[in-house]
Give the backbone structure.
Amino acid sequence: MAEYRLHCFAQSDNAYKPALMLELCGASWEPVFVDFFHGAHKSPEYLALNEMSEVPVLEHQGKVLSQSGVILDYLADQLGWFAPTGEDERREVLRWILWDNHKLTANCATWRFLANFAPEAMRNPDVIDFLSGRAKMALGILDKHLEGRTWIVGARMTVADLSCAGYMFYENEYPIDWGAEYPNFVAWRERIRVLPGWKHPYELMPGHPIPA
Amino acid sequence: MAEYRLHCFAQSDNAYKPALMLELCGASWEPVFVDFFHGAHKSPEYLALNEMSEVPVLEHQGKVLSQSGVILDYLADQLGWFAPTGEDERREVLRWILWDNHKLTANCATWRFLANFAPEAMRNPDVIDFLSGRAKMALGILDKHLEGRTWIVGARMTVADLSCAGYMFYENEYPIDWGAEYPNFVAWRERIRVLPGWKHPYELMPGHPIPA
C-alpha cells in the first residue's frame, strides 16, 4: 500500500494542489476516488473523514488531514520540499495561501464549476458574471505581484505557488485569453508545467471524464 | 504612540478579527481608519502597504502584515494568548481558519456587503441568493461542529474562534433567525460576547456610521 492516500477527483483544483506536490516530490502515494458528481462527499462515511464535506483529505500514518493549505503545510514538513525558511517567510507563504483560498480559488473554482459542470438550472448568468469579475480581480493582483518575480515568495518555489496554481491548468475551462491578460501569471504557470514529474490534473487524479 | 497600529474600518469583519484580539488581550493598539467606502484601499499609498488591496493591515516594530489569519497567528506568538498547543492543534486551528476564509467569511461577508452596503445597481437578487445559500451551508457546518463543544478546537478559545467570529456580531445585517437555525453557533457567540473587554465592531473600529 502507498504511504500517503489522497481522497480526490480529477476536476478538483483544491485536490490537485497536494496531488501535484506528492507527485513532484516522488512520494509513495495513491489517489482514492471521491465521486463528487454523484454526491460521495455527502455520504456519512465521507463526512466522518471530513465534516466540511470537501476534498482533499490526506491519510498518513493514522492522521486524517483536510484543507489543502493544511495538507501542503504537513507535506512540506514531512517531505522537506517547498517549505518556507524562517518565521517571516512562513507568514508570507501563509498570506498567499489564505488569499488564494479567500479570493483566488474561491472565485475561480466556483465560476469554473458553474460554467462547466453545474446542471443547466444552476447556470445563472448574473452569478457567473459576478464570480468571473471577482476572479479576474484576483488574477490581476497575482499577475502584478509576479511581475519581475520567478516565484510568489522568495527565490524558490514554495507551497504558496502550489496553492495558487491549483486551478490554473484547467485553463481551457475559462473564457480567458490568458497570455494577453495575465502575461506574468502565464510565464509563472509555464515554469511549473515544465517541472520534472509535472502532470495535468486529468492525468494525475481519477474521474475524468466524469462518470455517467 | 500605541505599540500596534491596525488599518481597519468598522464594517470590516476581517479587520474585526485582530481588532477584537488586540482588545481582549489588553494590547497597546490604535486603529488607523481606512475609508473603504470612498476607495481608500485602492490608493497608491494603501497598495504600497498591501498589494491585495484589503484590510486589515497590522504595523508592528517595522513589520507590515496582512491577511487576518496571518495577523492572528502573529499576535498569538507576540501576546501569548489564543495560541494552539503543539503541531496537531496548530494544524487543526489552521484548518478552521482556512475554511473560514474560503467558505464562511468569503460568502457571509460578500452577501452582507451586497445586501447592506452596495449601490442599488449591484444588489442583484440572484447573486444575493447564491451567496446566502453558500453562507448558510457554511453556517450549518459550523453549527454542527459546535454541538457539544465549547470552542472550535480543543478545550480553550483559540485564534480559530476569533477568525470564525469575525462577522457574526453584525447579526442584524443578515435576514437569519439565528437562534432557531443555528443554536450551537449562537451559544458559542454568546460565550465570546461576555468575555471581559469584548466590544461590538462598531464601537471598536472607526467609520460607523459610514461617512457621507
